[in-house]
Amino acid sequence: MSLTPFTADQLKAVDPGARHLDTCVVAGPGSGKTTVLVEYFSRLVAAGVDPLRILTITFTEKAAGNMRKKLAEAFHHDTQLRARLERAWVSTVHGFCTRLLKENAIFAGVDPAFAVADERESWRLQNESIDAAVTELFAKKPSDFRALIRGLSSITFEEACLSAYDAMRGAGLTIDRLAAIAIPAGADLGDAARILRQLQAVSPAGWNPSQRHHLESICRDAERIVAAEDPLQALHAIVSYSGNLNRCKRDTPAYELVKELRDLLKELPYSLISDLYQRERGLLLELLRRFDHVYRERKTSMGLLDFADLEEYTVRLLDENADARARLRAQFDHILMDEFQDTNGQQAKLLELIRRDDRFYAVGDINQSIFGFRHAEPEVFRAFRDRVRGNGRRLIELFANFRSRPEILRAVETITDGAAGVEPQPLEASRQFSAARPVCVDVICAPELTVEARWVAHRILELIEGSESRFHFKDVAVLVRNTEVMEDFSRAFADFGIPYVVNRGKGFYEGRDVKDLCHLLRIIANPTDEISMAVVLRSPLVGASDEALLRLKAQGENLGTSLMRLGSTTAEVASDDHARLIDFRDRLREWRVRRESVSFDRPLLAALDGCGYQTDARGWANIEKFLAQAREASGRMSLDEFVDHLALLRGDNLRERDAPPEDSTDAVSMMTIHSAKGLEFPIVCVAALHKGIESNPPVVAFSRRYGLGASWRNPATGEEKDDLVQHAIREERKVRETQEGERLLYVAMTRAEEHLVLSFSGQKQTNWAKIVQKKLRLDPEIPREEVLTRVSPRGEEWKFRLKVADRAPELMRARAENGATATEVEWLAAPSVSEQQDANATVTAVAAFAKCPREYYLGHYLGYEGRPRRLEDAGEPSAGEFGTLVHRLLAGAEAGDADPKAQAMAEVFRQSALGKRAERASRVEREFDFLMALDGLVLRGQIDLWFEDGGETVIVDYKTDTVTAVEAHQRAQDYAMQLRLYALAVERLTGRPPDRAWLHFLRPNTAIEVDLTPSLLDSPEQIVRDFQEAQEQQHFPLREGAHCRRCPFFRDLCPAGTTPTA
After folding, report:
1. Which end of the chain has fewer CB atoms < 10 Å from its terminal CB, N or C?
2. Are 670 and 480 spatial neighbours (Cβ–Cβ below 8 Å)?
3. The CATH number of 428-505+665-693+753-804 is which of 2.60.120.260, 3.40.50.300, 3.40.1110.10, 3.10.410.10?
């Protein structure tokens, strides 16, 4: 057990004496909830509870691993108990479900050997499945499906359907249950008819002639609405409604009726749209049902379960199998749950099925529930807390904060006071700090984002480099809600010399450098992609001006077409732009011609080199990472497929981390607030408070309460209009997003230990900036810097420094100018090493060295086997064994019961032109072994075939590689040096150089002649000298190229694809 001194409330929380009561621990920020949870587990074990009879569920694998580690440390003295702890059920929900399903696979109806698909694999399968479902449904009901597409009028409706599907599964619903949810009631034409009757009956006494005339028009318009024969006609009639309340006489019964009619006509279209698109809504549900079927089939065929499957199948196993449920409940005496406020509906149901009464111990904080986008339902925690309180069970509240300075906590309480999403909770400062700080909170107001970012950078340097500072860059976190602002802060940090790492940004694929390269690949694949063409032309890759793009656009309908037709004169665009555009156009044409014969990174490298691309260390790291991905992808998919793959990656919300720069050990962390949950930093900057997020529902949306809603095209206006379900979802979402946003700000500010910086920009404040400005009573109009005092809701004074800036700060001196000079060092020459080269070698080894010294070093010199680039079929001979068999047959071995495929391949050569020449040749040598001395190196090798025919000496080398005819021509260069060495051996034997040499790739039946013309640069003699020198110096340089993706060491022992190329 821990020696940590606990507070009175913490002691209650860790007391095992009340373990037979349901317990809810409300753990505020910095209250030590992880310590409490570990201590409670430890004390249960110390009280005699078997660790294997405790189920502990955490929110992340990291948290589970951390808890297991702490438990092992707590019982390090008891080896037997530690062994049981290592087998204890401490995991995430998905880890628990996986383990349970593996142990009960037959009862659960799943493949016992199932694998769990990660987010990216699930997402890929979902996209493939929705495409298949759309294609199938369109083929089945083409006219109905066209109506659905016209009605939704959104190119993102498939993505929206997937989002709704995930939310539905997180809530524990099926498609059938979704379809059964009743549509909310709404306004109808009967209400309009009632108001019309009352209007027609009311006396317009006191109305002037103009007002009476307008009232008559209102009644006529209302009559057309009421008399509409169908929803479409009614919608058109509503658009034609001319009623204007300002033209009616106030304070009269008729005025009130017109007002009621106006309000009704705002709501009525929701009902009419629902009626109009009733059939399309049914088809939308059918599409989801079809997608669900295809997606499940594909997962089953691959032996996969996604995360939602894990929860669903576990719930079904326990819900439908009373014996399994009873066994599981009997297996655990106690269930501990961390971060209970982030539970979704399906997980809540799972917990209800596995826990016994008064054996559940849940830890959470409603104020830190911020994962609504993962379908978390904070109401689950609230309901449990209220039930515990109402039933007289244990409710323990931990409000002592052991993280933040008191002034920071007072600021948090002041800013979140009265927020609907944040329950009133005292934040009690309980940590003892070594020294007081005069001001612990900064507020920065700037006129624009770039200025704000630079002031934040300036303030960070002040805090780090102050005369009495004990902080380092790694102690600082910059938290943002909207990732779009990260680029501005990245530039500011680079300008001020601040090292930083981006833990979660817009996404690797949304960084400027990578995005430019993505768009370049798109136009290599399709030059008529106008958006990508515009991005590339304006990017540093080309650097064309806006005027040049406008002039190109004016010449035709498409930028790409105009670029390809650009003349040789500068009449169309300015001379500077013209030169850039012509150069890029010519290179683009070349890249398009070669796009399927070179790896995808080659045109990207050429473009970067051609324009002298400039970026920072992080940008180059991301570029190298993307080039490696492009290089790897070119070995397994076409360019068009890769472009589509990138589009899916960029369109999805999955985040690929930025590649870190080389030195990122002492760096500012920049991340989203969601990524910072559970973390703490001495200095926290919550930046860009004025930036919000997109809170409108997608074109198709789900709600547990209302079901499936959609936004449809109103045929009367051409604009989007919600159906009744979507309208209800929008209002529900607005409230939920507002409240969760308030909690998100609360979480962000409570990450700070010693200093908190709040910053925003813009003239009119919105979102969190508006809250901060109102709560702190700020006047951002007058530029100034001052220290202000405010009083928290609990009556405690606190201070903050306000900086209202009207311009960006000057750059501060670089850190290197202020740092200590480097210690003088004495450089010593390395000791000389000589005579390390081999005395003999095979031709194959020297040829491998010629292709790539690094591959030779790893495979031939060190003897590593590497990874096979292709999977061998079980029961089939390996590629090497098959090649040997074919060579033996061609050397004259008896066929006997040899593999029919090998016999067929040997016959391919015999029937070829080279094979027929060899049959009639005057001299034929097969499997010809030789030894040859070259520059002091003895070479040994074996030539497949050489013959003399018609006065020519011809060398032939058979290849059984699995390649196409196109790939054979690409690969021929890899074997060229091998045949030149063979030619030299034959020349020494016969006294005359061979006339011709051929590589015959037998699978595609493609013969390729190898040029034997002597060359000073890559002659056999020079290659042997290079070979010996490399062994002498122990230097085997990496030679990157298209062959890399065929190398068994690629992206493994060899750094190709992960380091910059020369």
Report:
1. C
2. yes
3. 3.40.50.300
Tokens describing residue 752 = 């700070």
| CATH C-level class of 840-1046 | alpha beta
Residue 930 burial (CB count, 10 A): 18
What is residue 403's DSSP assignment? S
What are the pLDDT digits (tens) for 849-906? 988 898 888 887 777 666 554 444 444 566 777 888 898 899 888 776 677 888 999 9
Take residue 661 and report the two structure tokens written for it. Answer: 């720069």
**Look-up of token digits 């817009």:** 506
Residue 841 gets which letter from DSSP?
A: E
- Domain 8-114+306-402 - what CATH class? alpha beta
1042 touches 966 (CB < 8 A): no
- Give pTM, 2 decimals: 0.69
Residues 1054, 858: Cα–Cα separation, whole Å? 8
Tokens 């136009």 sit at which residue?
Answer: 523
690 Cβ contact list (under 8 Å, min separation 6): 760, 761, 762, 765, 766, 767, 768, 769, 770
The C-alpha angle with vertex 151 and arms to 147 and 154, in degrees rounded to 5, equals 115
508-651 belongs to CATH 2.30.40.10: no
- Sign for the pseudo-dihedral over CA of 545, 550, 555, 560: positive
- CA distances for 203 relative to 199, 426, 577, angstroms: 8, 60, 73
Rounded to an integer, what distance in angstroms lies between the CA atom of residue 225 and that of residue 242? 12
Q: Which residues pair with 682 in a beta bridge?
A: none
Q: CA 689 from chain center: how many Å? A: 24
β pairing state of 720-722 and 476-480: unpaired
pLDDT tens digits, 788-797 = 999 999 999 9
Per domain, the residue ranges of the chain are 8-114+306-402, 119-184+278-302, 189-276, 428-505+665-693+753-804, 508-651, 840-1046
C-alpha distances in Å from residue 460, one per residue of 473, 474, 493, 755, 820 = 8, 11, 9, 10, 20
